[in-house]
Amino acid sequence: MCVVCGCAETPSDHTHPHADGHTHEGGHGHGHDATGDLHYGLGRARVSVPGLDEGRAIRLEADVLGANQRFADANRAHFAAHRVAAWNLVSSPGSGKTTLLTATIRALQARAPAQAIAVIEGDQQTAHDAERIRATGVPAIQVNTGRGCHLDAQMVGEAFARLPLHHGAHDHGHDHSHGPALLFIENVGNLVCPAMWDLGERGKVAMLSVTEGEDKPLKYPDMFAAARLMVLTKTDLLPHVDFDVERCIAHALRVNPAIEVLLVSARSGVGLDAWVDWLLDDAAQPAPPAPARPDGAVPVCHL
Fold first, then answer.
1. What are the structural domains, with CATH classification, of the chain?
2. 129-135 — which CB contacts under 8 Å span 24+ positions?
3. Which candidate, 227, 225, 197, 230, places its Cα nearest to that of 75?
4. Which of 155-159, 173-177, 189-193, 228-232 has the lowest mean pLDDT?
5. Model's pTM, two decimal places?
6. Which of 154-158, 176-180, 213-217, 242-246 has the lowest mean pLDDT?
7. Is the pLDDT score of 129 beyond 70?
8. Torsion of CA 295, 254, 238, 191, to 10 degrees
9. What is the dihedral of CA 255, 256, 257, 263, to 10 degrees?
10. How far apart are CA 192 and CA 252, in angstroms?
């Protein structure tokens, strides 16, 4: 099922004006400029779905994301009760999330061998990434979403219940001498839909590889606006690609002035210590409040 799937059987029965003054049937909420470029998502819902007016889109969003928020709030309380610091790792496919995560786990194991770590892996199909994590000795639960393009809070809660971190129940029976346990939630590769979904995490970490182009924060602003940290990955490839680091950082700061930035290479190890420092320092701080969801934004995606 989709939040707003765009597959309605009957068109909307109302009309709306285009930017040039003529009308068009349906609730598209778009206009076009002098170049002829089309701009969808200009209305309150910030999305265009054939056969669905903006009011109905907003109501659907409120219903579905409201239900998700209740699961996310429960997750957040559950993580706190278990002294678990959880991060939601988001990116496009192929950014190097799993490769960096395995390198991060090994760096954490070398620095603090008793540190409790676990991973929830999100993909549409296969358990390949979970198997890579398990090869490091860290427990991982694979969540396959089928046609879904993101994890939701209910999925994460059910996966967490299957992890050893959960079995060390509520501050008794779990060794916290090395600080909070660390939980990494590797989301489905997608720079759009996961921005909207609170999983109960401390924050989103947006990973962007230098092979993708420095304009991604502007092209996918909701993701970078929702993230606390941007990690530029595969930086060992910088001599071989046309990627302007300073421009990318400027673009990210334009959409999110509070975002932090780290440059990391899992292959060479450059920046890995700074990334591990950030994780451990952040985990030692009080958990931030639940993130605010952008008003009127409707995810067009599968649940």
1. 83-283 (3.40.50.300)
2. 129/98, 129/186, 132/98, 132/102, 133/98, 133/101, 133/102, 133/105, 135/102
3. 197
4. 173-177
5. 0.81
6. 176-180
7. yes
8. 10
9. -100
10. 15
